[in-house]
What we know:
Elements: H1 10-20, H2 30-36, E1 45-51, H3 56-62, E2 68-73, H4 80-89, H5 93-96, E3 102-105, E4 110-113, H6 128-134, H7 141-147, E5 151-157, H8 164-169, E6 174-178, H9 181-192, E7 198-204, H10 206-214, H11 219-233, E8 241-246, E9 252-253, E10 259-262, E11 275-276, E12 280-283, H12 290-301, E13 305-309, H13 310-315, H14 328-331, E14 335-339, E15 344-347, E16 358-359, H15 365-368, E17 369-374
Parallel strand pairs: 1-7, 1-8, 5-6, 5-7, 10-15
Antiparallel strand pairs: 2-17, 3-4, 8-17, 9-16, 11-12, 12-14, 13-14
Helix pairs in contact: 10-11
Amino acid sequence: MDKPIYEKSIVSFINVLLKHFKVETKYRFNEMEDIILPQIVGKEKIVVIILDSLGYKKFKELNVEFEKSIKLSSVFPTTTVAAVTSLLTAMPPQEHGLLGYIQFIREIGSIMNMIDFSYPGLPDSSFETIVKKKIKRLPNVFQRLKKEGYFGGILTSHDIVNSGLSFLIQKDANIFSYYSTIDMFANLQKLLESDFKGLLYVYYGVLDGIGHKKGPDSISYEREAKFLLEEIKKLKYDKKTQIFVVADHGMVTTPREKNVFLGEELLKYLKFPPTGEMRMMYFYTKEKKDKELIDYLNDRYSKRFEIYPSKQLLSEGYFGFGDINPETENRIGDYVLLAKDNYSFTYTYTGREQKLLGMHGSLTYEELYVPLIFV
């Protein structure tokens, strides 16, 4: 298992872009400044295209040539909720406090799907009203750019414009939407030809969806990724524009036979069902049940995982650096389980959970490292 390298990560990358626009930042990243700032001298319009789940290893295997690309670290956990939030807020996970797909939210006393504000497995936004009243929206990059007189915007899929996560992290953004991949490129080209000075994000999540369903080594995933990269190379823009392509995290192929379905037997040791991801789970243990839980997991699934006290990973910097969100410790439980190699664990909240062929959340090379491409 690797540890995130926040000094050369998606977090430091965004902080350097803010420095370029003379936006005050709390953190300095000298190595990233030396890499990025000389490349964007005189650039007034910066576009950051986020290809969800395109890991660095997979990018290199695709053999799509660009003038320059480097390897960056993602954050922990390697999941969209934590990583995209870091990209849009310039904060590490321990500071922004969004730490997994499924989280325990103390403010409402329940576990919750952080993408759409629902109970895991339920189709509707069952907690939307109460969450919007109880959880504070995060300060973000858009607000900081606006304060200095710059544009801050995002081009994203129409079906997630009003999602729960978008509500928390996109306050005051100029929001544009698209309905298909081709529509995304058409709208992006139009925005490149428009007159703004600042930062535009473009978020594309279809690749992640293909990877989950068919695996990141599938023909479908690889053709989709290649198509996207080749189309990005065709974009037209002037000399005062810089385009970057980055990912939030990578992905691991997880064979069905290496996925374990966990059920209510765990509740003998836990206060409520585990949260997190299929390759990274948070456990909230009952009093004096810690050893019994660990023994139970080791007896049945030895060599498939590593498990650590949550506060240990927090103190050792896995969740980042700097300020700690007041809710972070409430949201990471007592123990963190990390799936090794290409194993995975699925907790059956409803019994309708699917067997996915691609997953992320843990700290393998494939999940942790992402490309930063200079277009």
